[in-house]
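In the previous chapter we treated chains in isolation. Here, by contrast, the input contains two separate entities that must be folded as one system, with a combined length of 596 residues.
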Amino acid sequence: MQGGVISRIGRTLNRVEEYVLFLMVLQMGISVFVQVIMRYLFQSAITWLDELVHIEVVFLTFFGASLCVKYSAHISVDALKKSVHKEPYRCVMEVLNHLVMAAYVSIVVCFGMKLISAMTTHTHYTPTLRIPKHYLYFVVCVALALIGVRSLLGVYRTLRMARTGPGEEVKP
Amino acid sequence: MTPVVVGVVVVLMALGVPLAAVVGVAALLCVISFTSIPPQALFQQLYQGSEYDLLQAVVFFIVAGNVMTRGSLASRLIKVGQALVGGFSGGLAITSVLLCMFFAAISGSSPATVVAIGTIMIPALIKSGYDQRFSVGLLTCAGSLGIMIPPSIPMIIWAVVVGVSVTKQFTAGFLPGILIGLALMAYSYAMARKRGWRVSRKISWQELIEALRQGAWGLFMPFLVLGGIYSGAFTATEAAAVAFVYALLVELFIHRSIRMKDMMPIFKESVLTSAMLLFIIANASVLSYYFSVDQIPERVADFLIGYIDSRFMFLILVNIALLIMGCFMDVVSAMLVLGPVFVPLLQRFEIDFIHFGIIMVLNIEIGFLTPPFGVNLFVASGITGKDVLEVARSVAPYLVIMLGMLLLITYVPWISLVLTRFVE
C-alpha cells in the first residue's frame, strides 16, 4: 500500500507544521514581552530577538496561508457558490478555485526562484543575524509551493468526492 | 487591456477564488501588461508586504482575543458588571453594552467581543424577561464596538496601509466608540421603559466585593494595555504582546480556566485567522506597489475631481460605496485594496487620514452586521443556534442607530480628532 505510506508521511508533516507554527507564535509573543521586561529591568534589549520575530511573521504568513488552504480558511466571495445548488457546477467551481490558486503561486514561485538565483552572486544579509536574504526568500518559496501542492490536493479531493459521493473524506 | 484585467478580477471573485489570490492575480496581470517592472520585484514586494513590525500586533491581539474568549476572564467581568449596574429599567441591557465596551478596551476584535460577552449575556437577558430579538440584536451590535474602542485590529491595518501613527489612530476611536455605546444604552433604556423590562434584584455589598475580587485580573487589563501605550511605556506591538502573555498567564495559572491541552485548538485558530489576514495584506501590498508605480490613485483622483466638487459629496459617496462593497466582500480586505487609492483623494479634499480611518472602521462595523459577510451575525448565530437571517433581522433596528452614528461621525470630524491633539 504505497498510498498509505504517502498519506501517513503527509499526515505527520501536517502535524509537525501545525506544532511548529503554534510554538512559533507562542515564542514570538513571549519574545516581544521579554524585550519589554529587558528594557525596563536591564536597560538593554536583545537586538537579534527583534529581528528573529520580524522574520517569523513572514514565515507565519506564508506557511499559515498554506494551512488555510487545508482548512479552507481563506475568505472568498461565496455568494454565487452558495446560490449554485447543482452538485456538478459547484464541483467545477471548487476545482477552478484551487487551480487558480495553484497557478498563481507557481508563477510567484518562478519569479522568486529567478530572484534567488540572481541574488546568489551578490548576497544581501539581514542586519544583525547576518542571514543571507535569499535563504529567507527560498523558505517563502517553499511555503508558496506548499500552497500550490495543497491546492492541487484540494482538486484531487473534490474530484474524488464527486465520483464517490460525499462520505469518506480523504485528508491530504 | 484594462477591461480584460477588470473582467478577470470580477470573474475570479464571482467564482469564489480566495480574495488573496484574486488580488495577487490582479497585481500580476497589471504589472506584466502595463509596466516594465521586472517580475522578480513582485516577489520581493510580496515578501516585504508581510514584513511590517506592526503586523505582529495583529497576530498577538488575535491570540489574546482567542485566549480570553476561551478562558474565564470575560465571565468574571460580567459578574462585576451585573453587580454594579443592578436594578433599574434596562439595567441588564445597559450592563451588556458597558461590558462590550470594556471588553473592547482589551481586545481588538469584534467577533471575539460578541463571543466573550454575548455567550453569557444573551441567555442572561432572555432569562430575565428581555425580548429575544432585542437581546440577540443588542449584543451582536454592541460587540462590533470591539474594533472602535482601542486596541483595534482594523485600525492597525489602516495605520500600516496609509502610514499614520497607530497610537493616534487608536485615540481617535475613543469618543466615537463611547458615543455609539451611549446611543445603544439610550435605546435599551427607552425600550426597557416602554416594555416594562425590569430586574429589581438588589445586590449586596458583599457580592459586589466578591465579584470585584474575582474579576480583578481582568479589570486591571485595560490599564495595563492602554495605559502602557499612552504612558509611552510600550509600543502598540509590545502592548499586544503584553496582552497576549498576560491573558495566557492569568488564564493558565491564576484562573486555571485553560489547560495545556486547550492550547492547541486556540493557537490553531489564531494561526489560521492571522495567516489569512496577513496573506491578503501581503498580496494587497503588491497591488498597491503597482498602483504607486503607475500613479493609479492620482489618475483616479484626477478623474473623480471633475465630478465631485465638495468634501461632503466625496464622503457621502465613499460611505455609500463602502456600504455596497460590504455586501459583496469583507470590508477589511476592501480597505486594504482601496486604502492606497484613497490617499491622494483625501489629500485633495483635505480630509484627515485619521478621521477617515474612523469612518472606515465604522463602515467595517456595519459590514460585520450585514449579510453576507457579517462575521458578527455568524458568530451570534453560532452561539444562539438561530438562523443567520433571523439574527440579521434582529440587528435591523440597531443598524439604523449605526447608520445615524456613521453620518454624525463622518460630518463632525471633531468627534474623532479632538482627543488626538493630546497624543504626540
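Chain A touches chain B through 54 residues (CB under 8 Å). The radius of gyration of chain A is 20 Å. Compare these points with the single-chain example from earlier in the chapter.
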